[in-house]
Every structure is written in structure tokens, then in C-alpha cells.
UniProtKB/TrEMBL annotation:
It comes from the Bacteria. It comes from Sediminivirga luteola. Residues 11-299 form the Enoyl reductase (ER) domain. It is found in: Cytoplasm. Coiled coil: none annotated. This is NADPH:quinone reductase.
Length: 301
């Protein structure tokens, strides 16, 4: 038997619970893993609330990204074998917050020895998103990237990727995250009323690109800083981005492998801020659901 954290109905955290079920068996193109760590993302509670559709069959396992050790491979899987250490996106109907889960082989990569399971669990969703967000429109060294939501799971890695590329990075976050954002080499700007004026004080010509990880009014407040609105990319709120003339983040298949290498070489730190046991997954999800996480939160079975 295997423990798995699920939600049993669309709604609030009261629908979440830890249940026990059979160890899942991989179908064609899938891998079974013993989970060592699972990343927690805003998508987990957005799915539970029904914000991303209501097509999940209930009870629905929670957690989209995981790292662990392969225990079984499904038909047609050639690149992985039992005992391999891997990281990847969970297969449909599966969740990372579990003792055992299934990954899709096509969205799984080998975990390099240099990367801990804890850090590896942040790669398939958060790190890969940070990679895509900083590569969709290529800036040149010295150009200015403004990151809205710079202190969160995706934001903190995106600021570091920006610095690796020698962009000038302006990170907008709340005052409590000043040191964290500055530790990446970014210029910190406090979020909230007057944010656009504070950005203008450090970047008279305005940024060359805005990457939005917050959306809504926070995005509207900075949108005028770029003369060309197609220089706004949003991972958080594609509707508001489109309304402003910007773009939705486009995810790519290659991002996971590319950012794994970058993290392996120590160029980006996923910054795991807190780890919770599987029976404390409610606390892990709640910490992300506040919308004010600092870096990444993971669940360790
Ligand atoms: N499209 C995709 O494939 C994809 C993939 C991953 C994530 N996402 C989305 O991207 C967004 C960020 O994800 P994440 O994992 O980084 O979330 P996260 O870890 O919860 O971080 C969100 C950050 O936003 C900051 N924030 C909240 N209000 C703000 C404001 N008014 N101004 C500036 N910062 C503000 C919060 O910190 P403060 O305390 O500083 O406010 C927090 O650090 C989410 O909406 C998520 O759903 C999309």
C-alpha cells in the first residue's frame, strides 16, 4: 500500500486528506517511482479550487512535480531503468505528494548526483517555468528584466537565470524579501502603491521586458513601464496580460533538461525554504496558498 495526499471535492483545504491506496503500476510510457520529494505549486490549490477545470477524477492526488527512485518501468520506456534517480512531471491522474507515484517518461530527466532530491523536486514545474519565462523573449547582456513576484518559487530562480545571462534584473517583491532578492544580484523594488515610480528611479528608460508572476492589479501597475506592451510575458495571469497587449508564457519541452544542467553546475539555487512531511502536506499547501511564499516549499514522504 502507498500513502497519497488527495483532495476529495473541488473547494477549500478542508477537502484535502491523506489516504492509502495500492502502489500505482506504470502504463505504457510511464515510470513508477518511490517519491523522495515533491514540489508544491500554486497550481495545486488552483486545481483543488476548480480554477483550472473540473476534469480531475476524485479523489485527485495533489502535486505536479516530483523526484525519486525508479521502481518499475512501463512498456516502451527505454531511457530509464529500475534504480535510476529521476525528476519529472507526474502522469495524468497521479500526484507527487505520495509515497509512490507515476511519471511520464517523456517529461522525466535523470537526476544528476550533484542535485539533492529536495532541489530536484522543484525543477519540473517551477525551475522549468523560470527557464521558459526568461527565454521566450531573448534579452541581451546589459538589458533590463523586471520580474514581478521575484521572491517566489519561480521568481527567485528567474532572477538568478537573468543574472547568469548578465541581464540587469529588477526584482519586485514585498519588503520582507529584500535580502533574498538582493542575494541573487537583482535590484530590489518593494511591491505595492507607487511601485512604477520606484522602478523609474532605478531604470529611467524602463525595463526591456516584464516577466509577470503575480497578475491582476500588480501587473497593471507596472505595464506602462514598457513602451512596447508585447514585452510583457505573464505566467500568472494570461488574461490580464492579453488585455494589456502582452503575451502568455509559452512552455517548452526542452526547459526541464536545460535548467537541470544549469542547477547541476551550481548556477541557480532553487532555494527550498521549507520541507514538510507527507502528513503535514496541508501546511505545505497552505504556505503556498498564502501567495507570499519565499522560494520553494516541498513535501518529503
Ligand atoms: N504557466 C505556467 O506554466 C506556470 C508554471 C508555474 C507557475 N505559474 C504561475 O506563476 C505564478 C508564480 O508561481 P510561483 O510558484 O512562483 O508562486 P509563489 O511561490 O507563490 O510566489 C508568488 C510570489 O508572488 C509575490 N507577490 C504576491 N503579490 C505580489 C505583488 N502585488 N507584487 C509583487 N509580488 C507579489 C509573493 O511574494 P510577496 O510576499 O513578495 O508578495 C510570492 O513570492 C503563479 O500564479 C503560478 O500559478 C504558471
Amino acid at each position: 500500500m502507498s500513502k497519497v495526499y488527495v483532495f476529495t471535492g473541488y473547494g477549500g483545504p478542508e477537502t484535502q486528506q491523506l489516504i492509502e491506496g495500492p502502489v500505482p503500476t506504470p502504463g505504457p510510457g510511464e515510470l513508477a517511482i518511490e517519491v523522495r520529494a515533491a514540489g508544491v505549486n500554486p497550481a495545486d490549490w488552483k486545481i483543488r479550487e476548480g480554477q483550472l477545470g473540473r476534469h480531475w477524477s476524485l479523489p485527485a492526488p495533489m502535486g505536479r512535480e516530483a523526484a525519486g527512485v525508479v521502481t518499475e518501468v512501463g512498456d516502451g520506456v527505454e531511457d530509464f531503468a529500475v534504480g535510476d534517480e529521476v525528476l519529472g512531471l507526474v502522469a495524468p491522474g497521479q500526484g507527487g505528494m505520495a509515497e509512490h507515484t507515476l511519471l511520464r517518461a517523456s517529461t522525466t530527466v535523470a537526476k544528476p548526483e550533484e542535485i539533492s532530491f529536495a532541489d530536484a523536486a522543484t525543477i519540473p514545474v517551477a525551475a522549468a517555468t523560470a527557464y521558459d519565462a526568461t527565454h521566450q523573449i531573448e534579452l541581451k547582456p546589459g538589458q533590463t528584466l523586471l520580474l514581478l513576484g521575484a521572491g517566489g518559487g519561480v521568481g527567485l530562480m528567474a532572477t538568478q537565470i537573468g543574472r547568469v545571462h548578465e541581464f540587469t534584473v529588477i526584482g519586485v517583491a514585498s519588503a520582507t524579501k529584500r535580502e533574498l532578492v538582493e542575494s541573487t544580484g537583482a535590484t530590489f523594488i518593494e511591491s505595492g502603491p507607487g511601485v512604477a515610480d520606484r522602478v523609474r528611479q532605478v531604470s529611467a528608460d524602463g525595463p526591456d521586458l516584464i516577466v509577470d508572476l503575480v497578475g491582476g492589479d500588480a501587473l497593471r501597475a507596472v505595464a506602462d513601464l514598457v513602451p512596447d506592451r508585447t514585452r510583457i510575458i505573464s505566467a500568472a495571469d494570461p488574461d490580464t496580460a492579453a488585455e494589456l497587449g502582452g503575451l502568455a508564457l509559452a512552455r517548452t519541452d526542452e526547459a526541464m533538461a536545460k535548467i537541470t544542467e544549469v542547477i547541476q553546475y551550481g548556477l541557480v539555487d532553487p532555494h527550498v525554504d521549507a520541507q514538510f512531511a507527507l502528513d503535514q502536506a496541508d501546511q505545505a499547501i497552505a504556505a503556498v496558498e498564502t501567495g507570499h511564499a519565499a522560494g520553494k516549499i516541498i513535501v518529503v514522504p
